[in-house]
Design brief:
The chain is an alpha/beta fold. It is built from ten helices and 13 strands. Helices cover 39% and strands 17% of the residues. The longest helix is centred in the first third of the chain and has 21 residues. It is globular and about 60 Å long. The termini are far apart. Bound molecules: nicotinamide-adenine-dinucleotide (NAD).
Length: 325
């Protein structure tokens, strides 16, 4: 259609990417998605969906075959604590994600793409500012001196700099978000790459009332969690603003992991006991700091954690019911 805006979503088969494709379609975009796989839980709404490996520069050049109005680069080799913090996947994470970012940027430069969004992570923040669970520091300017606690975080930090360098030297307009624990329906909920909200909902849904669930660590580690719809709202607002970031996109409603478990139990209407077991943990405390996003975009997330967790819990319950059939 003439005049229709065009968007490219890299990582469109993943959790955030597949939701983003739906959103952009709803806004009237022509959308091309690219990923190693189709979305796991429902069909894609993209106009064109390319199965391709973005580590390959030829694939990147093929998918960036025109000037897109908006390019969202979400593809990464990633997962929850069980994938990122064990150390077993570090070389794959660094090699795969860095290759994707190097290739996508170069392909976009070749096509004079102006506007490109990159999803960085709260995992870039230094370990030394996140030792106190009640008082973590994650303001954007606290990223340096750099000391992320994982190679996943180091790759994200490198890639932030890569995007900013392309902006500086190649006339591109980049927009960088540091996401803080995004969750919602159609996110990975089992298999080892799932994040804590989904894992907690699954454990609670699988356990009969009065039973026991396992929680990694002492349960006092803190995090905040952002529902997918607010993540997309923040991402598209950032993309269309005059602000490059990096900026936090996260919730400021910090809870302990035990409180998260308690919330899932209360949604389920169950009373379960918690057994704390050793497991990969990540930093001791983390919370979004939303001063900058509020100042630059006049918007910040506001939905209570419980609301998004209710929707996610019901969705995971359904998945479990279907898996039993
Ligand atoms: P996801 O794993 O569901 O999606 C990433 C997608 O990238 C997957 O579908 C995967 O197949 C695809 N991919 C990986 N390697 C590829 C390759 N070589 N070629 C093509 N596609 C490839 O993850 P998500 O939760 O949707 O996260 C999206 C982005 O946001 C990622 O960059 C992630 O690091 C970042 N992020 C997410 C969170 C979160 O809480 N979900 C937090 C911080 C940052």
């Amino acid at each position: 259609m003439q005049g229709q805006k065009r968007a490219l979503v890299c990582g469109a088969g993943g959790f955030i990417g597949s939701h983003l494709v739906n959103r952009l379609k709803g806004e009237g975009f022509w959308v091309r998605g690219v990923d190693l796989k189709y979305p796991e839980f429902s069909g894609t709404t993209a106009d064109d969906f390319v199965i391709g490996d973005l580590r390959d520069p030829h694939v990147c050049r093929d998918v960036v075959d025109r000037r897109f109005d908006e390019v969202y680069q979400l593809a990464a080799d990633m997962g929850g604590a069980g994938f990122v913090f064990t150390g077993e996947n570090d070389s794959a994470i660094m090699h795969n994600s860095a290759s994707i970012n190097l290739n996508v940027l170069e392909a976009c430069r070749g096509r004079n793409t102006r506007r490109i969004f990159y999803s960085s992570s709260a995992c870039i923040y230094p370990l030394y500012n996140q030792l106190d669970p009640d008082n973590p520091k994650c303001s954007e300017d606290s990223a340096y001196p750099a000391a992320p606690d994982s190679d996943y975080g180091w790759e994200k930090l490198f890639s932030e700099r890569l995007y900013l360098a392309y902006q500086r030297n190649n006339g591109m307009e980049v927009h960088i978000a540091r996401y803080h624990n995004i969750f919602g329906p159609e996110g990975t909920w089992t298999g080892g790459r799932e994040k804590s909200p989904a894992a907690m909902c699954r454990k609670v849904a699988q356990t009969p009332d009065g039973g026991e669930i396992e929680v990694w660590g002492d349960g006092k580690q803190t995090r905040s969690f952002l529902y997918i719809d607010e993540c997309l709202e923040g991402s598209t607002r950032l993309m269309r603003s005059g602000f490059s970031g990096p900026v936090n996109i996260g919730s400021e409603e910090m809870v302990t992991i035990d409180q998260l478990a308690g919330l899932a139990m209360s949604i389920a209407g169950k009373k379960l006991s918690i057994r704390h077991v050793p497991g990969p943990l990540g930093v001791r405390g983390r919370n979004s700091d939303n001063k900058m996003i509020w100042e630059k975009l006049g918007w910040r997330p506001s939905q209570p954690l419980r609301k998004g967790l209710e929707i996610t819990y019901r969705w995971i319950e359904e998945q479990l019911a279907q898996a039993k059939k």
